[in-house]
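ok so heres the complex, three chains, lmk if somethin looks off
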Amino acid sequence: MSVLVSSKINGDDIEFVCEPDETLLDALRDRVGLTGVKEGCGTGDCGACSITLDGALVCSCLVLGAEAEGRKIETVEGMADGDKLHPLQQKFLEHAALQCGICTPGFLVASKTLLEKNPDPTEEEVRYALAGNLCRCTGYDKIVRAVLDAAKQMRKTAKKGKTNG
Amino acid sequence: MTARARTVHLWGGLRPAADGAESVELHAGTIRELMRVLCEQYPKLEPFVDEGIAVSVNGTIYRDDWSQVLPVDAEIYLLPRIEGG
Amino acid sequence: MGKDTTFKARNFNSVGTRPLRPDGIDKVTGRARYGADFSMPGQLQGCILRSPHAHASIKSIDTSKAEKLKGVKAVVTRKDFITKDADPALLTVLDNCMAGKTAFYDGHAVAAVAAIDAKTAKKALQLIKVEYKVLKHVTDVDEAIKPKAPLIDKKCFTSGVDPKPSKASNIAARSEFGHGDVDKGFEKADVIIERNYKTGQSHQGYIEPHACVASYSPDGTADMWVCTQGHFDFRAQCAGILGMDASKLRVTSSEIGGGFGGKTHLWIEPVTLALSRKANRPVKLVMTRDEVFRASGPTSATSIDVKMGVTKDGTITAAEAELRYTSGPYAGSWARLGAMTAFACYDLDHVKTVGLEVLVNRPKTTAYRAPSAPMAAFAVESMVDELAEHIGMSAVDLRIKNAAKEGTRASYGPVYGPIGIGPTLEAAKNHPHMKVKLGKNQSRGMACGFWFNFGGQSCTDLNIGPDGSATITVGTIDVGGARASLALVVAEELGIPYERVKAVIADTGSLGHNDMTDGSRGTFASSLSAIDSCRMAIAELRNRAAQIWEIDADDVIWENGEAKAISKGAAGNSNREPLSLANLAQSAHKTGGPISGHSQIVADGAGVSFATHICDVEVDKETGQTSIVRYTVIQDAGKAVHPTYVEGQFQGGAAQGIGWALNEEYIYGDDGRLQNPGFLDYRIPVCSDLPMIDTQILEIPNPNHPYGVRGVGETSIVPPLAAIGNAISNAIGVRMTQVPMSPPRILAALNQE
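and the predicted structre for the whole thing:
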């Protein structure tokens, strides 16, 4: 009955077994142990379970575990480079863009996807890009500021990289 | 009993249990004494005390600290023990 | 108790700075463990069967088929809870977690299953046969008080009325507040307005559903891991319901993914424990979002009648209100809080409020951030604007003229000490926001809000490590950054860097009882206790230094993280280099062992709190859609310990209020079933719905805290409903009287014109 799934998760080749009707969210949390991926609704409305699947932002509660076969998955657990936080993680801390923190993994993954596509977003673009992620604590103010500030820093670093390289 | 007489104001909900009085005169030096004397004089108030009464002393609300001393001439006002979120 | 907590003006080194929060890295890397992130070896999955009916008597429950299903390890119903000789208050808690003879609302729990996995547990639920007799239901607050309304509880005789009523009704309690003679007051008024206002039932909407893992051992002890705002209260109530000694149940609080009052009550926890006891295995139970909406407590729906009178020159002469609040199927004290807070912002000679608690077939009402105050403020603050309009005075000036101040008799009874309503209004009047030019179809509104705040029982330990670093152990849950604030307070008291302090939330076996995080008490009460613990440790540190120097402890002072000698002592040696915390910690084994401080207090005297909000909206008259263009929160914090997180509280409360004002509402069908139990149809504000939310922190010290701290968590949700209502009414020229002011309601209001 169960299916064996092989995929690349946060850069590692991972195999897991799941039921054919099991969501990728449940598989990641219960089979792979990546509990940084959160369930807020199970219906794709809150974005707490946001991950990327082959680079595309998805709600993992709306994807089946079996669909991950042969694909690349990135979760919040894969964002930092060892002990070096991703600029978004660092800016979320500096701007106090989290209070309870349950929505934070989803926001970080969604923001990262945004900045990869659009390194210099306007405030409005940030707000619409993150409209699929619910936060009930912050009123979004500090989240938006953190994303804009991280984007600025990442642009600076990229420019430096280019000049140096 | 040496504590002096003082006026204790009741919120509307307590008044029916104190014969309709808006305030009562009691001898009490602390909140604990006040609660005891209140129940002695107005037994109908006992369920309210059990349920929880807060005491405002000069505008500062004491919900729990029954050892609080009631200063001379302080305004004493009984309130329901409130809940928050 | 008996501790000196008087405010003393001082300069701060740590308090008032904005360091990174200590639990931050775990939360941005996915490492932090919330309710559902914990598992135990051999753990089963629990699931709950819920009533599909709004009101039904439960004739019988047949669980035999479910029990026989392979993989099912336990099925529980109400029969599995011993209810003989139980405390009536606990019985009510239990009845909500697991129905007895009656299912009182759509979603009321009737049975639960523990099985080897979730799939089996869900299958088992379908095999449970419940025979219901459907009863007539009522969900609307005004319908429920009509004489012919279906009775929720045949033994419900309105309390607070003398003599006791002879007939049962759905009005569980009546409360009354006020002073003066409102009839006399209205005689002096030039303008009198009377109106009815209604507010929809909203949910706290925390993103993390309720979750717990319970493990009951055959020796009668148990462990529980749970997301809660108060693990000590959860322990006490669960132990009571399960008939255990509280000390035998150890509860560990997980990180909490939002609460806002909703995680102050039990929902699934005693059921999970009962399943574990019956199955003799650990059980994990996590609510679905649908269950969160249907079966965990929202706030009240209300209907509020207000009458106010004003003179031409702007003196409010009298104010009166009857406030009817739904409390679900069980008696609550929600209307009472509405009645207490309704007119608290104003200095009134004649005021009267009556609160009625109304039973309905909706889930049990729970606290939601400044519970009951936002609805009352919506009604009163809407009317204040209307009065201002009638006499041709500006809304802010009318409020300033009538604002309560030190010495004012509050509408709920006592006389105020130093308070911040006047200053927040003056700050609003002078705020740059007030001068920003409005665009087309845009309009401005404002409103004030009040909340009590409170303190309660707190217990903390302060332990100095052998290297001179410090751990502050608290029992009050950190919902939104309290560990950062407490570490700042400890750093301030001990005179050491913030980075040298670790704040830890203890389980229920490690500290004395702590009240839950509610009533904006977290930072206020825990900081009082932490300061007390630190001061005890400092007394000990001075003793240790005195021993080393062979002088009297009174001749040692503690300054900037060091012990300093102020006398020469018996040895006559005047060259006494100060001893740092690290020095003293390192030599502790020679001076009497570990150095620590402990505090157990009842923190009373939390200062009342006021806020004024300003809001600009743009209303699309074609669609009825409202956009928030600009928003400013001005609130008194007493003293902001970590200003960034104080701003966060202001912004978060405002955003919740905005959602409530514009969209959020429980919608019931004629069958009494909830029609929108999900985030798609119960729409909370998303990022693109909101502008930046500007904040201004005022610091009017609370006289009852050494640093002047007041609670800050709740007041910010009080003004938005009315501020937005006033802005919309100004924009469309029609007075909005019902929340949420959703597009259909705005269109209806426009069409009525």
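quick notes: Chain B touches chain C at residues 9, 11-13, 15-17, 56, 58-65, 67-68, 75, 77-80, 82-85 (CB under 8 Å). thats all i got rn
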